[in-house]
Amino acid sequence: MKFDTPAGANPIDRLKVVGKPTDRIDGPRKTTGTAPYANDWHDPQSRLAYGYVVGAGIGKGRIAGMDVSRAEAAAGVLAVVTAANAGKLDRGAFYVARALAGPDVDHYHQAVALVVAETFEQARAAAALVRVDYVRSEGVFDLAAAKDTAVAPKAGPFVSPEAKAGDFEAAFATAPVRIDESYGTPDHAHAMMEPHATVASWDGDRLTLWTAIQQMNWGVRDIAKTLGIAKGNVRLVSPFIGGGFGGKGTILSDAVLASLGARAAGRPVKVSLPRPLMFNNVTHRPATIQRIRIGAGPDGRITAIGHESWSGNLPDGPPETATEPTRLLYAGPNRLMRMHLARLDLPEGGAMRAPGEAPGMMALEIAMDEMAERLGMDPVAFRVLNDTQVDPENPRRPFSRRQLVECLRRGAELFGWERRVAKPGQVRDGRWLVGMGMASAIRGAPVMRSAARVRLDGRGMVTVETDMTDIGTGSYTIIAQTAAEMMGLPLDRVVVRLGDSAYPESPGSGGQWGAASSTAGVYAACVKLREAVARRLGFNATDAVFEDGQVRAGNRSEPLVRAAAGGELVAEDGVEYGDLAEWFALQTFGAHFVEVGVDVDTAEVRVRRMLAVCAAGRILSPKAARSQIIGGMTMGIGAALMEELAVDARRGFFVNHDLAGYEVPVHADIPDLQVSFLDEIDPAASPLKAKGVGELGISGAAAAVANAVHNATGVRVRDYPVTLDKLLGGMPEAA
Amino acid sequence: MKPFTYERPGTPAEAAAAAASTPGARFIAGGTNLLDLMKLQVETPAHLVDVNGLGLDGIEPTPEGGLRIGALVSNTDLAADARVRKDYAVLSRALLAGASGQLRNRATTAGNLLQRTRCPYFYDTAQPCNKRRPGSGCAALDGVSRQLAVVGSSEACIATNPSDMAVAMRILDATVETVDAEGTRRRIGMADFHRLPDERPELDTTLRPGELVTAVTLPKPLGGAHVYRKVRDRASYAFALVSVAAVVRPDGTGRVAFGGLAHKPWRVEAAEADLPRGARAVAEGVLAGARPTHENAFKLKLAERTLGAVLHQARA
User: Fold this and answer.
1) Domain with A105 in it
2) Are A682 and A691 in contact (CB under 8 A)?
3) pTM for this one?
4) Which residues, by range, are in coiled-coil regions (chain A) (predicted)?
């Protein structure tokens, strides 16, 4: 099915199943421990062996010598894989770090060996016997120090190194009201619950991986390319994934090493990354330094807006695209966005929940708060004034749907924004200084080609198969809702099978594209199945109404199940997208409102309440969507107040490489978070008129918290996280 | 984790004897810290002596009017004990400020006293650390040190003691009771139980090899207002940047000790005389000779301000 004009009326609009706040259909399997995650695969017949990864103990250099003899001689050891015996290895097409070091070590905890043994304990014990002699070399580990070496990054599908409109420099120089500030965001860890894990099994030259990755199509492509085998000989299975946040985009060292270990041992091998390796062995969200310049007239209208971002990465690695949201969020005729990329020898920087928007909005939305303060304007009113309904770089390109102003106004009303005292440091509640802050939210709504297969069987059950993944987001549920709606069935008549590369190809979970894309593919397949059903039952497909398990047209009604009486009906289709994204800017919008308390003595910051109002097309499952938004808000609170991979710039690694050292919010940090969705359908977005929400919730959330801290204390922190040490100097004299 | 042998003796003396007779032996109780360290090979005991069967899990009154807390009393049970909550509230509050409910269920009184530092370099066996590998150097000195010590540190080590419970026990003047392989019993005051790192940071305490902690005794109740205040970046489940334990009498006199500042619970008795004069005066004495790094110098101001808040709360 081609989707190249905005969607008209279709069966989804009935909203008998779609749009209802249903419980997730995979919930019982998860709560009863019967949902198999990658590390749970145990086939008693397969003589599974276990691999343990040895990570490099230096940040940069080379391996001068390795002694694996003691490991090889240890109890239960079947094989030790190193660069010396692994054979030629390529890299995938997405991540740039090599899965196995040798002789060069490119970053800390890059794998130098995999020890395979009969048991996990034997593999772990033997791994500690591998002796490596390193020769350290000078590495570049400090972004601030490397900033001046940064260059323009290569353009790519996700990277626009520079974007301009008008004459920014001239307009900024002459603007009556200006700010020009620098902001810093640190490296962030995905810190998902489930570690990277893979069970690899060879059958001749055919490889099966039970693994935990978000995009099966990328995974197949990348493992085939890395190992130099045919894509057709690879099968990936990821039915359940315990969180990814972009950290499991495609195959990583666990998959490559499990494959090599299984080949070496001649048996299936399970490899999961131990938690301490999950911060330096794999990818993270890169730190940024951002400079934002905004010029406005005394009336508050922005005349010039400039956003530059510096980030670092391994050679060939992409930049953090922090300037991206500024291209579309606010009006202003004179614009300059520019990315700079430095070479760093830290672990690979990669996508993490709302790459670009998350760190970019952390800076931009503080800058907007500062600008509003300088103008003497209310921060909400300043943003409303500078709304745009067209792409500011290309005013002939409208937004498909843009309700930012509505989000801002509704949020201000629901939150009681009018009670905010504009002058900072004025509100006291016991030992707390209390402040309110807000920020806008924007995140792209990309859609990608996605396919599915649907079956109607003789019991009247519909089974959906697609290689879409569910990383905890609710994919199972919204796909079931889509099929149920299309086929006129209740939810419990639909079975959903996901996460197997043998199923029709989807774009997987990432970039907030999963929900809209995968349900579109299911929609297309269901349209075909409806046609097959109509043919079988003697209806004209365009007239037939599928409802309550019946197919009706005119005065005739037949049970749907009768269509499969002569055998299962199978239909497969997908959605291909035309150029709607060139005609329309497709984005999701929101507004965050936060109240914080800052302890007057210790400067500890605690969020007291928080609200997000979101406009993101049709909300397929309000319950799952709310969970996505509050998850993003929680991650935003973490980014605002505590999350930071601490760089040891001398030794070249992230020091706090476990969940005790890398702090993410705990329950006690998160008050009752409120989410409100505006009624919206976006016919240009997808056949379901839906957009994703998985990343919208984090966009702007951290800045809203930081702005609230400023309102509470009068201290402006531009270097995240906003920890108490950065506030203490500006707190009132001790009692 | 390295392979190890294991035994579960029936009496404290047998346990001490077992530990003394096997080189590289360690006691294990809740295992909430030791097992993590064994998985990382930060700790590599050849033999584990499981002390969970020793019956040291009671809390009983002492003839002096205090309490004797068995070494194996869980942190949960100790914090919930009615006598502790009433007469030693600072101890109960300190315990509840630490770890999580699940960990407190497993963690024991002696184990809490003996937990190792959370310095990140101690946890990474690829890095130099004098506490883990004597003589290898200290990576934290010029590394990531925001959480680490500002007083009592040495050129060899700037680790902090992570315990909340120990800070409360320090102001309560608790006494640690031990037994050794010969059956000799010893009583060690909390002031002398934990060490400063000096040139031997591998030694956290003054316990001798094989010596087993059997109990901690508390003297008779002090009265006064009991406050424990823990300051951290998140609201729960984090080690203290700074913590303050205080017992303050109505006349403003009292005791105060700090966590998060040093290799041991940090109490300077001489400075307590200044308590009626307020936090600044006390902090000057408590923090005299401090040698913070550029990353943790904020702890000096934070300690003073937190103490100010605690004294305010105690008087309220």
Assistant:
1) 44-138+194-277
2) yes
3) 0.98
4) none
- Per-residue CA distances from A476 to A22, A117, A218 (Å): 12, 36, 20
User: Closest Cα partner for A448 from A206, A119, A702, A217?
Assistant: A217
How far is the C-alpha of A312 from the C-alpha of A141, rounded, in Å? 9
Token pair for B176: 């640690």
- So what's the pLDDT on residue A735? 59
Q: What is the mean pLDDT of chain A?
A: 97
Distance from CA of B299 to the nearest CA of A (A): 8
- The region, left, alpha or beta by phi > 0 then psi within -120 to 50, assigned to residue A10 is beta
Residue to mutate among A648, A728, A733, with most B CBs inside 10 A, is A648
Q: Note whether residue A306 is domain-resident.
A: no
Alpha-carbon span A424 to A598, nearest angstrom: 12
A10 and A49 housed in the same domain: no
Of A277, A298, A333, the residue that ends a domain is A277
Instruction: Please check whether residue A641 is in contact with residue A605, taking contact to mean a CB–CB distance below 8 angstroms.
Output: yes
Same domain, yes or no: A491 and A634: no
Query: Quick one: CA torsion of B240, A709, A430, A609, rounded to 10 degrees?
Result: -90
User: Which of A75, A658, A669 minimises the CB distance to B235?
Assistant: A669
Check A320, A357, A680, A695 and give the catalytic one. A695
Rounded mean pLDDT, A212-221? 98
Q: Looking at residue A119, which CATH number applies to its domain?
A: 3.30.365.10
The reported pLDDT for the residue numbered A157 is 84
Residue type, A87: G
Residue A607 within any structural domain of the chain: yes
Are A423 and A494 found together in one domain? no
Measured between alpha carbons, how far is A269 from A143 in angstroms, rounded to an integer? 38
**Number of domains chain A contains:** 3
Best CA proximity match to A603, nearest among A729, A711, A436, A428: A729
Q: Using the predicted structure, report yes or no on whether residue A659 has a pLDDT greater than 90.
A: yes
Residues A112 and A226 reside in one and the same domain: yes
Residue with tokens 């330096």, as numbered in its chain: A280
The H-or-E segment that residue A497 falls in is strand A494-497
A547 catalytically annotated: no
Domain-located, residue A335: no
Contact A128 B126 (CB under 8 A): no
B298 touches A at CB < 8 Å: yes
Shared domain for A493 and A556, answered yes or no, is: yes
Please report, as a single letter, which amino acid is at residue A413. E
Cβ–Cβ contact B139 with A under 8 A: yes
Residue A591 CA, distance from chain mean position: 19
* Facing residue for A724 by CB, picked from B41, B118, B302: B302
pLDDT (tens digit per residue) in A44-69: 778 999 999 999 999 999 999 999 99
Regions of chain B short of the pLDDT cut 50: none
% residues pLDDT > 90 (chain A): 98
> Is A602's CB within 8 Å of B118's CB?
no
Assess whether A487 and A631 both reside in one domain.
no
- Nearest Cα to Cα of residue A354 among A387, A305, A310, A321: A321
Of A228, A248, A277, which residue constitutes the final position of a domain?
A277
**In the prediction, which pLDDT does A99 show?**
97
Q: Does B138 touch chain A (CB under 8 A)?
A: no
ipTM, two decimals: 0.97
CA distance linking residue A182 with residue A308, whole number of Å: 9
- The span from the CA of A76 to the CA of B98, in Å, is 40
User: Could you tell me which of A601, A606, A597 has the C-alpha nearest to residue A668?
Assistant: A606
- Establish if B106 touches chain A: CB-CB under 8 angstroms: no
DSSP, res A45:
G
